[in-house]
Amino acid sequence: MLRCSLLLGRNPWYSHFPHTFSTMHVKTNLLPHVPGEIRAANRRVRELVQDGRIEEARAYFDSLSCRNTVTWNSMISGYLKKKEVLKARKLFDEMRNKDVYSWNLMIQGYMSCRSLGYLEEGRRMFDNMPEKDIVSWNTIISGYAKNGRMEDAIRLFDSMPERDVVTWNAVITGFLSNGDVKKASEFFKKMPIRDAGSISSLVSGLIQNDKMDEAEKILFEYGEMCSKKADLVHAMNTLIAGYGQKGKVADARRIFDAIPDFEKNVVSWNSMVMAYAKVGDMPSAAEMFDQMKNRDTFSWNTMITGYVHVSDMETAAKLFSQMPYPDSLSWNSLISGFAQAGKMELALHYFEWMPRRNLISWNTMIAGYERNLCFKEAIRLFLDMQAQGEKPDFHTLSSVLSVCAQSAEQQLGMQIHQLVVKKVIPDVTLNNSLITMYAKCGAISEAKRIFNDPTFCRNVVSWNAMIAGYASHGYGSMALELFESMKVFKVTPTYITFISVLSACAHGGLVEEGRSYFRSMTCDFGIEPRVEHFASLVDVVGRSGNVEEAMDIINNMPVEPDKLVWGALLGACKVHNNLELAKVAAEALMKLEPDNSGSYVVLYNMYVDAGKWNDAGAIRMAMERKNIKKERGYSIVKSRHNRMNSIP
């Protein structure tokens, strides 16, 4: 420890007593090598911390026989980056020789947390500091500002012995993040010295608060004060990006053109390309991209993503093949584009060729399979994902639960539920997915248990899922009771809610209730009826035998009836043996789905039952002429090995 104290320079007494060295049992020939050893040790700790290998860093830290303040600060910084404030504080308390930087680190750690207790502890540390520098003041002020406590921030600002541009910027940013544009502008104008950060912060904040004109005015009024042209260009780039985000491409281009060509940097060009891509103007984006002398990965990714968004996958793939160094975003964008286009074979091709997959890659593929109803492939990929050691997140589990719901794979859904319980704290979206899965699989009691969990913060999707579950499994009265409870809890229903409510009325034969809820949807909640609502209303009225009234509803629809509407009428006509309207409904369905045998078969059977053999024969001849085959019916049966088998 003596050797260490000499090297660290924390005990200056030795400089006044040079004779002391002669009496110490220290090998002086080793002394010159120790500073290098400490520097190497500090570098190693810093590298491990930067790589996020905090446990390795701590083990290495503990193994060191000699440390200096930098060693301790690096380790504390590592914990704070991981938001492990308590471990950082424990290490800080064990530290003998703290400097101002050590204190500032801990204060910053506390102030970066949203917890009131942590903010107060950060303030206590600030008040107890042996000595403060301007960074200490800026850290505590910035912390208060980021947490919306502007009164505390201003009190400290007013009591500061000296301020710098960082202090002013912190306060201005705080006002902007809290939506107080007026105060932010006032403070900006009071600033004794401004830098590019001041202007960019204000411009960015004004853009976020939708004050585009004011942002531009500030830029051109104060931009000339920037000491370097690069600083002004940085601020102008911020404005270009802001206009682009708002879809104001002409304004973005005007600012872009105001920058001299020799001053434009890659960010200027990227911002303009992104502005065009955001509004889907890919020809203009491509023209701008082709003019770029220096492109970076962001430039290429912006173009590829732009083509994906306009569903031009051919050009996106061509550009990808020309990209010098595609990164994970490039690969994932292409995979996502092909998945959205329903081309899962191509999506899988790029997924398999991807040099290094990440969680987004797996999620994109699984969600793509789920969206395109490729349930077996989605489940297989999920199992492969686990086998390769990739941990699923909320998005993964939500997609797989959706697959289980749509394919009635309750057994797998239950396994996913266990995974959720063990691995994550489910949020409202994941709980909604669980409710939907259990409800669609017929496990209503399990869905109800999750829905009624007192720790579950329900939203309108939760209510919709539970009401739909009751309605689709014949619990019409329970669905309507839950809907009434939903209104009591002041949860505003959506158009999806009323689809389930009307479905519950149809299955329960509640005609008057169905009519009443349909009127309430428009009159009480201002929801314009969609084609799905009309289909449900036709089903409600038709099932009760009022097929003529159902036909009147269709004739007076403000939107074009689809296959669901005509299908509901045809089903009602079949049940109540109304051959005349059945013919109308069937012919409409034949036009909408010319290759679907269902409407032909229903009408044929009704003609046979009525003894109209000539009409039945005409239907059969029409099917043969159009080469329409009757679809074979089948049942899905799960074997004891949990395999899904189709039985004709």
Describe this structure as you would to a colleague:
Residues 1-34 and 640-648 have low confidence and may be disordered. It contains 38 helices and 2 strands. The chain has 648 residues and is mainly α. The protein has helices at 2-8, 20-23, 34-50, 54-63, 69-81, 85-94, 100-111, 116-128, 134-146, 150-159, 165-177, 181-190, 196-208, 212-222, 229-245, 249-258, 266-278, 282-291, 297-309, 313-322, 328-340, 344-353, 359-371, 375-387, 394-407, 410-423, 428-440, 444-451, 460-472, 476-488, 495-508, 511-523, 531-543, 547-555, 563-576, 579-592, 598-609, 613-625, and strands at residues 635-638, 644-647. A two-stranded antiparallel sheet has the order 1-2. Helices cover 70% and strands 1% of the residues. Helix 23 runs antiparallel to helix 24, helix 25 (394-407) packs antiparallel against helix 26 and helix 27 runs parallel beside helix 29. The chain is elongated, with a radius of gyration of 34 Å. A hairpin with a 5-residue loop joins strand 1 and strand 2.
